[in-house]
Amino acid sequence: MSDNKTPQKSTGLHIGTPAPGCKKKDPILVADNIKKSFGGLTAVDVAHLEIPKNAITALIGPNGAGKTTLFNLLTGFDTADTGEWHLMGNSLAGVPSFKVAKMGQVRTFQLTKALGLLTVMDNMKLGAKDQGGESIFKALLPGTWRKQDNEIGEKAMELLKRFKLDAKKDDFAASLSGGQRKLLEMARALMTDPTLVMLDEPMAGVNPALTQSLLDHVLDLKQQGMTVLFVEHDMHMVRHIADWVVVMAEGQVVAEGPADTVMKEQAVIDAYLGAHQDTDLGVVTGRIDIIDEGGAK
Amino acid sequence: MDWGMILNNTLAGFLTPATIAFALAALGLAMHFGFAGLLNFGIAGFMAIGGYGYAISVLTFGFPWWAGMLMGILGSVIFALILGIPTLRLRGDYLAIATIAAAEIARLLFLTTAFTDVTGSADGLFGFNTRPDGSGFQNANPIPPGTYGFGPFTYNEQTLWVLIFGLGVLAVAVWLLWALMRSPWGRVIKGIREDEEAIRSLGKNVFAYKLQALVIGGVFGALGGIVYTAAQNISPGVYVTSFTFFVWTALLLGGAATIFGPVIGAVIFWVIQAFLSNLLPALSLSGVLPVSTTQASTLRFVLVGIGLMLLVIYRPQGIFGDKRELTFVR
Amino acid sequence: MSERVVEVKDLVAGYLPGVNILNGTNFHADKGELIGIIGPNGAGKSTLLKAIFGLVKVREGSITLNGESIVGLKPNALVSKGVGFIPQTNNVFPSLTIEENLQMGIFQQPENYKERLDFVVSIFEELGKRLKQRAGSLSGGERQMVAMSRALMMDPTVLLLDEPSAGLSPVRQDEAFLRVSDINKAGVTCIMVEQNARRCLQIADRGYVLDQGKDAVVGTGRELLNDPQVVGLYLGTLGS
Asked: Which of 142-171 (C) contact A at CB < 8 A?
């Protein structure tokens, strides 16, 4: 079994003391005053948020904290009531989701959107940008897109091999297991050569033993110069790879900082991590004693 | 019971201008629904606009036949844009309702006496295929007068010309659909059919693609209307909503998301139609069916309806469809 | 010798024709036990649960509840026999209030509503305060609570839970596991499928590791937690 190499964490990402809304030395995404309400309920109310470039940032927080809503707002899948945000200087407010994706900010979904009725390879090819053959007129002239399509196919195979899905390339995505579909969605998102990859609960539903390889893939993204922002509930994963952690609760950013310090903050423990984070529940429930006393009940 | 005549008329149904027109309309619907997942319940409207566009251009504006046909196609493109731009951002069910309404509006505009000078209203239009100035479709017929073919497949030179033209148009349409769907553009369309948000997240302008699919399918429908009209005359009574559902039956029968399925489905449907419209009156005449001949003739629509229901329940993928590929099959 | 409540022998089942997810699984739960079922994706964990509850067709093998065969019985029949099922997703009626959701749970025995409501609210105090709230406005963890309460309304003897911690934040996950443990201590035999294998095994009496439709490893919760092979293949080493 491979041992977990402890990844090199990036440090010194922030300016000043780590606090909600603190500035970063090299931010890739800067958001100001983003608000979104659903019928009286404030889902998101972020005064200021900067995401550091070429680092892995984790967005954690209880359910209903607004993490996915924030994702949706930043990527154009939902419209904010107010707010401005810039990706590497380009304003994204009001930009429709497909344009945001074209500009290099790509996202995955909490409920996987692997296209089950298409093959794995077709799923992958759909990810590639600037495909001539996707224009309706060029589509009729295979000469204009055949070569590019083959190149895209090769790039797809490389990615599929990395994610161990190459054997399944001609299978319909619906025949993949839940965890494999997650991998496919991630691999497909990488076909767009993004600069900022936003993963919404990439480990949800994935077998713990597969988590390690998924984490390696996320670390690879950083190696290749991409920036990662991910939402997760798996604290082991967050501690293992996150360079920076942003904590949201009730729509606001309540804490920011390196993983170790943030996860020790009492407010974060109370609202999110729980007091039993590092204890065995068998002890907490008193079951271990029962079992030690001699066999099953 | 004259089985010989029944058989003869049934076989004739394999190859008539109506069959070809149906196949073209089914191809249009295959693009709309089978591949792009757009619920279009107004394909009859596209056909009507194609046919009327052609006929009116020739009769009222004196266009030569090929220009008239192009006008019919242009009309369907405009119709698709008017229909699509407001509705394609809505949920699929709303597009369905909008298409039924749009097709009915088109038919009623052709029916109203307000435009009777141009549309002929309830009487429809005729006399545009052969023009006194020689610019009509039949004027361009290179086939010398006579009877051609054998047995049930006997045609005069006019019908033969329409058939050759129609088959040519059908071949081009089939090729176009095939070429588009095997290209990256087709891949995006199939993705949209399943999950628009996923496709948006990959940087594709979903609205533009849906509009393109709507226009192309609409053009196929218009071509169907044109071929139908080139064979005879045009009247609004043909393009009723039940006509749309016949096209749907043909589409689902053959296989909604296939290239040849719609064509085969249209042929089978038309042949069965021909069979029933000959058999049922004959059964009524010979006393087997205790109904009048007119009632027997309408009985075939009942049977078509039942057939459609059984199809959707037991084999929604049709003859050639692949169950694994269809969004509407569970 | 404890009573065998649920017994599954050589079970073969699947969703699509010709494709078997479960390939001869053996499983049993005795009265009062808390059983954990873990394993990789596609191993058949949820399928096993659904087969027991009559949601998936059994192709071969047997399933008995308190000795009598329940193969082929519809879920509503199983509810009458004291089996409760908590699905992973879509587990509340979003347009109904919490109270109405609970009423749906005791649909078969409306006369016991008041008594069961008092019992359920005693375990889930928070729910008692928000009975009129629309279930659709609840967060994932809160819906989980409602789903569990609804299953408890029928006073089940066996509770089937499909990934109760899925999608929940760490503190809510721990709460979910603690709740299941409490419910089990109150006398309900609990069978839970879990992706959070570590937590599941910490509270389980016995565990089954399913792989490719078969029970690959069986043991007590502690045995499995400490088995290096299980850790390597299924639990992952990150948590250590």
From this structure: 166-171
